[in-house]
Design goal:
Elements (H helix, E strand, L loop, with lengths): L10 E3 L3 H17 L6 E2 L6 E2 H4 L7 H9 L2 H26 L4 H15 L7 H7 L1 H15 L2 H15 L4 H20 L1 E3 L5 H25 L1 H11 L42 H10 L11 H6 L22 H16 L16 E3 L4 E7 L1 H19 L4 H4 L15 H21 L3 H25 L4 E3 L11 H7 L6 E3 L12 E3 L34 H9 L4 E4 L5 H4 L1 E7 L2 H7 L5 E6 L6 E4 L5 E3 L5 E2 L3 E8 L2 E8 L4 E5 L2 E3 L7 E6 L2 E9 L2 H26 L9
Parallel strand pairs: 8-9, 8-10
Antiparallel strand pairs: 1-7, 2-3, 4-6, 5-6, 10-12, 11-12, 13-14, 13-17, 15-16, 16-21, 17-20, 18-19, 18-21
Helix pairs in contact: 1-3, 3-4, 4-5, 4-6, 4-7, 5-17, 5-18, 7-8, 7-9, 8-10, 8-23, 9-10, 9-15, 11-23, 12-18, 14-15, 14-17, 15-17
Length: about 725
């Protein structure tokens, strides 16, 4: 119902998809198909470390499989759908583990999976990393109930996998939730009356140590991704808090919290485009949306600053927090009942003959689940803390706390409130269902689930930047005339084009740049496209800005793609193509023609500076792969300048022999002797190889422990 068109080859457009995610995924797919694991992206700007910037997710096994065997749009859709399935299954398994009724588990899975994630469809990382949160809680709860090491190892793998897609914020939130849940669960759990206090303390120490070790092992599994990301972080704008890194971006204004219980004040039905059949059914199930306003949500959000931060850097997707009205009512009803009466033991379903047995070295201590009141208390506290932090009001304190001061988007902590509401609603619904039987129970379950699905479907279409289209631009790359023309150029082209990173889909190096964590050299505003030529109201050719023109030539730009005609004489260009490009025009949503120009006199990506001060362009093709770039040159000697980023890990070779790089700028320069030579730069980052070694060693240790715990062997590892 939510993503039906994706099964038929549709694709997403909107938000950051074509300026950020699709260029990265297409690059990953192209390099994998070429037989190369990419450590460096040589198409975006002057390049950047793939694992350092992280969100390509090149170390994430599901990505590697999907983008190796499938074309990018199909692979992207598959990852989207599979992680929704993973998320739903994770919530279901956790709810079943804590003894929730099947009807309650179904509602909880619907609320969490389809309440928080669909509006964020334009943010790939949301579902890909958020889906692992309920799976991690299921693993933690399973270990606490059974004492089996398989769940500790499983939790380590889950937390490690959650880090590998490269977006660490939701992984950080997951670790906080697991730590908090584990502590509450361990110290507020009832135990068998015959257990001594010493054995109970020993069992709790073992549980605490196991969960802590699992989280630490998760970090070590993710080291192949974390080490390069940390290296880039120290050389990026996020090294310090400033205008380029505003932690308050994406906060939830306090007034906007009313969306939780009064969606009709905010969400506009006018924002829904198409899907009339599903829309009619959904409105029938959730009629309160008939009364929605007719305003632009982002504009309304900007006007609602009372009691919030002075910063206006947020949007409707980052600040979204809604779990459905019926689930909210059921959660509140369950909470009132929980605090009105004394705690009642809530035991999980048995798992084998050793269910709910915590094994210690000397004595078995029977462990029960959280009481009704303790469970309600934990999720209430977690929801309140998540909402408070989501508003950004704690940022003045959090900026001094490691972890919190690194991430933007405090509104993302709303995921904790959504999960808490889902669990409490599931408990309340399960209790309510018990009071009915027969057809009454079937009718109740049908109405509640259908109304909730309709409610969340409507909101997912009203609060989003992403839409599904039958002809996604990324599937049209091979039909692009601009792509074909640029790839036929004798020298290696560098394109300056509208819409950051979009030119990467053409298979050539492209400016301007849009990155999540960018090298500090990319701090120039022109990297964001601020100097892009604008159309003239009188349709006159655009006159060149001398500063921009000088910057373009210094950056090695050889071609410029413009939305307006350029003045040939002031720009020093010649028109080589104009018209409609099926891929570019589709991605940009632009019916008007585009214009492709080539600079007449520019050094290009590579040139040789001689002793007399002249600059000679290298006109031979540059043999460029992701991790290696090779340039055959013939000259009387001088300095070869490659206008790609000089980043740690790049090694220079001349005719296969190591050579010293000239450290005079952020470009790569090397002194070459007279004659014919082949100059190569090879990317061998220490951070990657060190991280890979740590990740593989951790997996080996966990596999060894798992083997001896399961099969026996060394006495110290044998199970009792």
């Amino acid at each position: 119902m939510f993503w039906g068109p994706l099964w038929y080859g549709y694709g997403f457009v909107g938000g950051d998809l074509y300026s950020y995610f699709f260029p990265q995924k297409a690059f990953l797919a192209d390099r994998l198909h070429a037989g190369e694991f990419p450590l460096w992206n040589n198409l975006t700007g002057f390049g950047y470390p793939v694992l350092g910037e992280s969100q390509t997710g090149a170390a994430y096994p599901p990505y590697l499989l999907a983008y190796y065997f499938l074309e990018p749009n199909t692979a992207y859709n598959l990852q989207h759908l599979l992680h929704y399935f993973l998320c739903f299954a994770g919530v279901w398994l956790y709810c079943q583990r804590i003894g929730m009724r099947t009807s309650g588990a179904m509602l909880a899975a619907i609320v969490f999976t389809y309440g928080w994630f669909p509006p964020r469809a334009c943010l790939e990382w949301a579902i890909v990393t958020g889906a692992w949160l309920p799976v991690a809680l299921w693993m933690a709860e399973s270990y606490l109930q059974t004492g089996w090491w398989r769940y500790v190892i499983g939790l380590s793998l889950v937390l490690g996998l959650q880090l590998l897609p490269g977006h660490f914020h939701l992984a950080f939130i997951t670790q906080l939730v697991v730590l908090g849940y584990g502590a509450w669960r361990i110290f507020f759990t009832g135990t068998g009356g015959g257990a001594s206090s010493a054995n109970v303390s020993r069992a709790r120490l073992q549980q605490s140590s196991a969960l802590t070790a699992a989280i630490a092992a998760g970090f070590l599994i993710g080291a192949v991704q974390l080490f390069p990301a940390w290296e880039l972080k120290t050389r990026s704008s996020r090294a310090t808090v400033g205008t380029d890194h505003d932690p308050s971006y994406g906060h939830l204004p306090p007034l906007y919290l009313s969306q939780i219980c009064m969606p009709w004040n905010w969400y506009s039905p006018a924002a829904i485009q198409g899907e009339e059949g599903l829309r009619t059914l959904s409105e029938f199930g959730a009629p309160w949306h008939w009364f929605g306003p007719h305003h632009e949500l982002d504009q309304a959000l900007m006007k609602s600053r009372t009691g919030g931060l002075a910063s206006v850097s947020t949007n409707k997707v980052e600040a979204h927090l809604y779990c459905g009205l019926i689930p909210l009512g059921l959660a509140c009803w369950w909470l009132l009942g929980s605090f009105r009466r004394t705690g009642i033991a809530v035991e999980a379903k048995p798992v084998g003959s050793q269910a709910r047995k915590q094994v210690t070295d000397q004595q078995q201590v029977q462990v029960f689940g959280l009481s009704r009141r303790a469970e309600a208390c934990f999720w209430t506290v977690a929801a309140i803390l998540g909402v408070i932090y989501a508003t950004g009001l704690l940022l003045p304190i959090a900026k001094y706390i490691p972890g919190f001061n690194f991430f933007r988007g405090p509104g993302r902590y709303g995921i904790v409130m959504t999960f808490a509401a889902a669990i409490l609603a599931g408990r309340g619904f399960g209790k309510l269902v018990e009071t009915f039987s027969g057809m009454g129970r079937i009718s109740l379950v049908t109405c509640v689930l259908w109304s909730t699905v309709g409610d969340l479907w409507l909101v997912s279409r009203m609060v989003t930047y992403a839409t599904m289209v039958p002809r996604p631009a990324i599937t049209l790359r091979d039909q692009s005339p601009v792509r074909k023309l640029l790839l036929e150029q004798t020298e290696s082209p560098r394109l300056y084009a509208p819409m950051q990173n979009l030119g990467n889909l053409l298979g050539v190096s492209c400016l301007p740049v849009y990155l999540g964590i960018a090298p500090v050299e990319y701090g120039d505003p022109k990297f964001a496209g601020e100097g892009m030529p604008k159309g003239d109201v009188n349709a006159r050719p655009n006159i060149a800005n001398p500063d921009l023109l000088n910057w373009l030539k210094q950056s090695g730009v050889t071609h410029i793609l413009s939305e307006t005609r350029l003045d040939h004489s002031s720009w020093g260009v010649s028109l080589i193509w104009e018209g409609h490009d099926v891929m570019l025009n589709t991605a940009m949503g632009r019916p008007e023609p585009l214009f492709l120009y080539k600079f007449k006199n520019c050094a290009g990506r590579a040139s040789i500076n001689t002793a007399d001060g002249t600059e000679n362009s290298v006109r031979v093709p540059i043999q460029s792969a992701a991790n290696r770039i090779s340039i055959p040159v013939e000259s009387a000697g001088g300095t070869l300048v490659l206008r790609d980023l000089n980043y740690p890990g790049w090694r220079t070779e001349i005719d296969g022999q190591a050579a010293a790089t000239v450290a005079t700028s952020h470009f790569r320069e090397v002194q070459i002797p007279a004659g014919k030579h082949t100059v190569a730069w090879v990317y061998r980052p220490v951070s990657f190889w060190l991280g890979l070694g740590v990740s593989l060693l951790t997996l080996f240790v966990l596999a060894t422990i798992g083997h001896f715990r399961f099969w026996g062997g060394w006495c110290v590892f044998k199970r009792h």
